Amino acid sequence: MKTFQGPRAELTTHGAAVGDLLRLWRERRRISQLDLAITAEVSTRHLSFVETGRAKPSREMVLRLGEHLDVPLRERNHLLLAAGYAPVYRESALDDPELGTARDAVRQVLAGHEPYPAVVVDRLWNLVEANSSVSLLTEGSAPELLAPVPNVLKIALHPRGMAPRVINLGELRADLLGRLRRQVEATADPELVELLDEVRGYPCDQPVPEVEIPSHGNIFVPLRLWHGEQELSFFSTIATFGAPLDVTLAELAIESFYPADEATGDYLRRIKENA
Question: Which residues of 188-226 are buried (b: 16+ CB within 10 A; e: fewer)?
Fold first, then answer.
């Protein structure tokens, strides 16, 4: 099992008024003042005063509005700071003893998923941990893509990464960029915007569908790639921690790959048995 550590990054929302930030989050979620007031059980008048800066929200009000607006924990801390309160959600290092139980659970998931690949990524798609089978996917990638902080999107789509071995690169590109765009829309994270700008600039010699229309029998977008002379086909599932109260945990995601056909499953099991 491999462990990768990367630098933390801060968003650039410091200095903005809490009312302006709350209004931006409400507009981003396409929720009216009336609807938010009803769900958060606050008067529309008071909410309007908070957004315009005529009233200072209490600490509990900031947290309540952040929850109802589904604001990421990192940004809820920024809302609190903008309102003059201390952050309440910790951002622990991955090796923090406080995260020991969660870290052990993640590693059990990764190890138990062998011989199929599984990765853990942070909010920026940086590779945090991976099981040994992930080497089947990253094999042949340029060293600069694998260190110092591997990024799974860059590895997947870069012409010196997995891309030359991906049989359905156009489909995969559309799926990954679509996921990243939705993440940008949900979080407004400027670092994700930079990542999106970079990876969509990578070349692709296949048509990239604007709208994914499944062909007969398809129920997911597969990852199809060559490993030597063997064609492998995978689908994946994504798991996150339920109700996390730590920024680091809230931003972790486990993506587990499963064989999409019997030939891929048999091939991976043989590799494991012969290792």
Answer: bbeebeebbeebeebebeeeeeeeeeeeeeeeebbbbbe
